[in-house]
Every structure is written in structure tokens, then in C-alpha cells.
Amino acid sequence: MADQPTSIADSFPALQAAFQPARAAGLDKTLQFDFSGREPGTWTMHIHDGTMDYAQGAAQSPNATIAVDSDDWLNILGGALDPVSAFMGGKLKIQGDMGLMMQFQNWFAR
Does 110 reside within a domain? Predict the structure, then answer.
């Protein structure tokens, strides 16, 4: 992402701006993000056939749930923290469809 978001509330519009619709064509998936740390809270992202929307709050039945410290998430988005290293080091926890999270980074321009 060109500019690193400085808050969780800013991170979702930044992701939406970097979203590449053609890379998510045909998908219908819901991701839930459970943030801890400085900015605790729950957010939901829905990818539906080349569109992306998001909202604050929990999803009814997410395909994957990501638990991460808010500062770690912002560092991942900004490129200061490698997502694979964060996962392997236990800073990023995923429940549900692991393959979905492997695709996640491909949906966005860098």
C-alpha cells in the first residue's frame, strides 16, 4: 500500500482503495478480524464477485477469523511486518479457511 494506515478505522478504506476486483472475481467470502492491543474491536470484510465491503462488528458466519494485535496488523499492511513471519511467530492467528488467507494478499495492489 502506498501510505501506511495509522489506525484500524483507516486500514479498511486503504484496503478498499488497493482492492483489485478482477483478482477476486467469482469469490463470495467473509473475513472477520478480531483486533487486540491499542485498538481492540471486531471488523468484517466481505468479498463478493469482484467487490469488497467492510463494516465494524462481527460476521454471522465468517469463512475465516483473523486474530491480531492492531499495531501488528498496521505493520503488516505497511510492509514492516511480514504476514508469514507474523503467522509463524503466533502474532497472527487464523481460524477457518487458511487457504483464503493465502489468497488475501493477491486481492490488493502493492
Answer: no
Euclidean distance between CA atoms 82 and 49, whole angstroms = 27
Question: What cell numbers appear for 107 in the block?
Answer: 486481492
CATH code for the domain in which residue 23 is found: 3.30.1050.10
pLDDT tens profile 33-42: 999 999 999 9
CA–CA separation, 16 and 34 (whole Å): 18
Supply the DSSP symbol for 56: E
Domain count, the chain: 1
Its domain, for residue 15, covers 8-105
DSSP for 23-47 reads GGTT-EEEEEEEEETTS-EEEEEEE
